[in-house]
Structure to design on (141 residues):
């Protein structure tokens, strides 16, 4: 009997634009109603025809009622999306907000964190990839 090796077809990654918004040495994270126990960066998937910055501006407006000010590319993170369990490419921008964030109905919670709070469950892309970068840059307290 001849066995053939299973071939794996690379999946197209889920594309996400997200904001690393830091204030007073703490990072803004949000949780969604669909998974209130897991905290992510604010942002989301681009709509057809949108680039990452357009998606970021739309998502921050929808989620936080605020617009990004002076967004700058920080990094691209390849990871597994926490909820979907699929490959993800997250383009992360640093930015400030034009006003105090107000969470939309789709959000369960909004918090500022230095990433050291053991009671806060951060999405792996944030915990394992972004926080070390922000600490290395000296952005977090």
């Amino acid at each position: 009997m001849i066995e053939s090796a299973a071939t794996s077809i690379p999946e197209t990654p889920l594309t996400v634009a997200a904001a690393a918004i830091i204030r007073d040495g703490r990072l803004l994270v949000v949780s969604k109603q669909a998974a209130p126990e897991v905290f992510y960066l604010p942002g989301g998937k681009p709509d057809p025809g949108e680039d990452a910055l357009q998606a970021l501006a739309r998502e921050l407006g929808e989620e936080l009622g605020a617009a990004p000010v002076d967004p700058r590319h920080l990094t691209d993170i390849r990871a597994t999306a926490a909820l979907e369990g699929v490959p993800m490419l997250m383009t992360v921008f640093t930015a400030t907000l034009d006003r105090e964030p107000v969470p939309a109905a789709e959000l369960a919670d909004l918090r500022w964190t230095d990433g050291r709070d053991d009671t806060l469950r951060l999405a792996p892309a944030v915990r394992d990839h972004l926080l070390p970068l922000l600490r290395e840059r000296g952005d977090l307290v």
Notes: Residues 124-137 form the longest helix (14 residues).
